[in-house]
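Researcher: Quick test of sequence recovery. Tokens follow.
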């Protein structure tokens, strides 16, 4: 059995717009590290220009959510999009992504194991979390 996780992405109004379910490797040293690398250096903008296209950019959180799915979903299985109302998918971890902030929750004890910005998240050592 794998370590399941959910990754929620929120819009500017703090409403969830994506619930991405990962069936295995959902622990912070797996999915968390991969998510941190994806978010690292990504800039959120409101509008795009020719200069914007040269940077790692998302035109708002909806664009980020679409890029996140494209980044992780590269074969059958493994990742699934669930309803944003789905809160119990047997996940051990949840990742809540907002504009330049992320919160990671370990579900077995509802403990927040990280809350902060994307840059610090990508540099966090989670080896002692289990």
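Model:
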């Amino acid at each position: 059995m794998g370590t399941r996780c959910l990754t929620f992405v929120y819009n500017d109004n703090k409403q969830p717009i994506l619930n991405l379910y990962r069936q295995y490797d959902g622990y912070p040293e797996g999915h968390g590290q991969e998510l941190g690398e994806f978010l690292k250096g990504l800039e959120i903008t409101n509008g795009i220009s020719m200069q914007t296209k040269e940077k790692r950019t998302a035109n708002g959180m909806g664009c980020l959510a679409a890029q996140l799915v494209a980044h992780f979903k590269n074969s059958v299985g493994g990742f699934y999009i669930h309803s944003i109302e789905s809160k119990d998918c047997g996940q051990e971890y949840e990742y809540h992504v907002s504009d330049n902030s992320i919160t990671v929750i370990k579900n077995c004890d509802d403990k927040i194991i990280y809350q902060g910005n994307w840059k610090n998240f990508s540099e966090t050592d989670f080896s002692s979390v289990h």
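Helices lie at 28-39, 61-72, 118-122.
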